[in-house]
Amino acid sequence: MPDVLSELIRTAFIPSAGKKLIVSDFSAVEARVIAWLAGEQWRMKVFERGGDIYCASASQMFGVPVEKHGVNGHLRQKGKIAELALGYGGSVGALKAMGALEMGLTKEELPTLVRQWRSANPHITRLWWDVDEAVMTAVRDKTSTYAHGIRFHVQSGMLFIHLPSGRDLCYAKPRIGENQFGSPAVTYMGVGATKKWERIESYGPKFVENIVQGISRDLLCYAMRTLRCCDIVAHVHDEIILEADPRVSLDAVCEQMGRTPPWAKGLVLRADGYECAFYKKDLEGEIERMTHEHYLTAQEAQSLDRRAISRYYQSDLFLRSQRSNNLRREFAFQMELGREDLETVIPNIGEHLVTVQGIADMIFEEGGAWVLTDFKTDRVDADVLCDRYRRQLALYAKMIAGSTGMPVREKVIYSFYLGRALTLS
């Protein structure tokens, strides 16, 4: 829950008066690009008919129909975690990192899941090793090679991967080295995990990841050009944020963004979007992103109460916080306090001064004073919740006022269980 709330920083971005924001992004762009590059026809057909790739993947892997919340629906989660973890050569370790064990899978079934995914996607698996061989040959023989419409060549001490858009990916000082298993591998110079300039080892699936993400970036740039008559105020990952007149059609923006460029014939794209009075991520998309980037495990993502989170977005407290010109989240503070402040919390404290530290979930300025907000998930009624945290918030209010020089006018607990804000007297 704290990870989800920390993402609310984006809501500080609002449109000009009389305007709205339109947020439009590609749907499963990397999955679409890798299927197109590899020629994985069953996946492309799923995208053409607007199907659920996680259900389709599970169906292909297990050989049975899979419907979300329907027949064999329990297999969809296995299809989803396989899709997120295995597309770029991932194996058992990638499944574990994605939270496979936490979602109930056993260690024994993970190798089978890897084999089933690769068996269901033979063209993608072949793409990895075709690219591996093409890169290896280009670096070893200082020549040009081709794989799946991509050109690889070495020139002036650089490896170039020529993308369909005409742009090149560039790798400095490539050479053939030896990987951790004692086999030949391509290495190049770059900024590694230690944030230092060092030699980096790579191989086919990793180069495929670079290529797919490079093409995805070029698709975004092409979409921005098709929308150049609109007021694009920002772009983040695979989404574009527009500031628009209220009369501008969301459907028209998504249609333009989803157009396939001339250099990607056969690639099936789709863009989805929404309108908003402040910048935000659609909840399901944000949860999926946080799962993919390992902020949440699959089990944690599945257990989130979407309705409770959505209620907060629609609450008066949230709207008040967005109207403030001075909003701070995870606000840290500390202060030396004595017996008169702490004797109800620490019995027999004596005359000692104690340094107390705290972090407020959110404070925002309203009418020249702070509104202190604490988010809680306790499954108790309002009276119990208020009594449980009254002293803590009173202490926080005193410390925040002392450290900022501005009084706290209101102390609020937002209960996700109750779906409402509770103001403490």
Description:
The protein is of the alpha+beta class and 425 residues long. It contains 16 helices and 15 strands. The chain has helices spanning 2-6, 29-38, 41-48, 53-62, 76-86, 92-97, 110-120, 122-141, 204-226, 250-257, 283-292, 298-303, 306-313, 316-323, 339-342, 382-404; strands spanning 20-26, 144-147, 150-155, 158-162, 168-178, 184-191, 197-202, 231-236, 239-244, 271-276, 327-337, 354-366, 369-376, 408-415, 420-424. It has a 6-stranded antiparallel sheet with strand order 2-3-4-5-6-7, covered by helices on one side. Strand 5 (168-178) and strand 6 (184-191) form a beta hairpin. Helix 2 (29-38) crosses helix 9 (204-226). The two termini are 26 Å apart. 27% of the residues are buried. The mean pLDDT is 88.
